[in-house]
Specification:
This protein has 360 residues and is mostly helical. It has 2 domains: 134 residues, DNA polymerase, domain 1 (Orthogonal Bundle); 187 residues, hpI Integrase, Chain A, CATH 1.10.443.10. The chain contains 15 helices and 5 strands. It is globular and about 70 Å long. The mean pLDDT is 90.
Length: 360
């Protein structure tokens, strides 16, 4: 089990690994072989997401495919799995779009979720086919759901200012929310200013320890998606918001397991991703009810502001921790288009006759 010497990232990895092992106990042994093969090339959280999707696929097979109906999932053989056809995989995806779970609750999945499920199944089939465990790979014949680009939602500069003002003042909060506001506003202002001023992910924010804040160099140490360590620098506004909270944090009692955590809940435990998401939603509703503001939208807001100030897409990609600059470019394409429009008269092909150096 995790102990207090483990970092936040390490604890999450251990939890994901334990959940993965529990799922694999339900699945045929050849599935475990696949996860052994990707153990060092995929993060535990990614492996767990694959396992959830693959387990759902096997549950569908034993309940809906006649040749496997009633079979215990763990008893499904490679021969049975190798006989699965592309139409059966397509039927699974159609089933997953809308279905009722074990609690009779209606569950729906959009195209993005279905694409992820198909990718998980494809990876398993590809591995088994590559290792000569099955004769064919039917998953490659299944068309990937088409994903439509979503509109990028960001906060406008005036919304950012009002957002932080309301965090500080408590304006527009409900009476119930105001009960705890004075006690928590220093923490909330520090956390939200940090996210808006650095563009870090919500998981990176939740994972911060006190020792990760380097005031001598105005930077924080974070663990990126994928496990890489990185330093992110912050400006004066972030520093000014952090200092009062850091002074307050020294006086707060933390749970033993979370004694190093930077941001604490009222119970003294590390503030988790869900709590940060709720915090953002609470204050965002005081500014706009039209835009659905999430922690990721704060990240998009920072990326937009940085790009507008620097016009350097590579810098934005580096600061945000994007491995592929095309990911950044897709998010900020409309800003790039505006920059190109503004640049249309920057280069002059011929000078006016009355300019210096021109002929009379």
């Amino acid at each position: 089990m995790p102990n207090k010497t483990n970092t936040y990232t390490e604890k999450n990895q251990i939890i994901c690994s334990e959940k993965l092992e529990d799922i694999l106990k339900e699945l045929p042994s050849f599935v475990s072989g696949y996860f052994n093969a990707i153990e060092f090339s995929r993060q535990p959280r990614t492996q767990l997401a694959y396992a959830w999707d693959i387990r759902n696929f096997f549950r569908y097979l034993v309940s809906e495919i006649p040749s496997m109906n009633g079979t215990n999932i763990k008893d499904i053989t490679l021969e049975q799995f190798g006989s699965i056809t592309a139409p059966q995989i397509e039927s699974f995806l159609r089933h997953e779009r809308v279905y009722r779970n074990d609690q009779s609750e209606l569950v729906s999945n959009g195209d993005r979720a279905l694409k992820r499920k198909l990718c998980s199944i494809r990876a398993l089939f590809a591995y088994l086919y590559r290792m000569d465990k099955i004769p064919t790979n039917p998953a490659v014949k299944v068309q990937v759901p088409k994903i439509h680009d979503k509109a990028i939602i960001r906060m406008d500069p005036n919304e950012v200012a009002e957002f932080l003002d309301n965090v500080e003042s408590g304006d527009h909060l409900t009476k119930q929310q105001l009960v705890f506001h004075n006690k928590l506003k220093s923490r909330d202002l520090a956390l939200l200013t940090l996210m808006l001023g650095t563009g870090i992910r919500v998981s990176e924010c939740a994972g911060l320890d006190i020792k990760d804040v380097d005031l001598d160099n105005d930077r924080i140490r974070i663990i990126r998606k994928g496990g890489a360590e990185s330093f992110v620098y912050f400006g004066d506004e972030v520093r000014d918001a952090l200092l009062p909270y850091l002074a307050q944090r020294k006086k707060l009692e933390a749970a033993t397991a979370d004694s190093d955590a930077l941001f604490l809940s009222q119970k003294g435990t590390r503030l988790g991703v869900r709590s940060i998401e709720y915090m953002v939603k609470k204050y965002a509703q005081t500014v706009t009810t039209v835009k659905h503001i999430t922690p990721h939208k704060l990240r998009s807001t920072y990326g937009t502001n940085l790009y507008q100030e620097t016009h350097d897409i590579y810098l934005v990609a580096d600061v945000l921790g994007h491995k592929d600059v095309n990911t950044t470019r897709r998010h900020y394409a409309d800003q790039a288009e505006e920059n190109r429009r503004n640049a249309r008269n920057k280069v002059h092909l011929r000078r006016n006759g009355n300019e210096n150096g021109s002929k009379p």
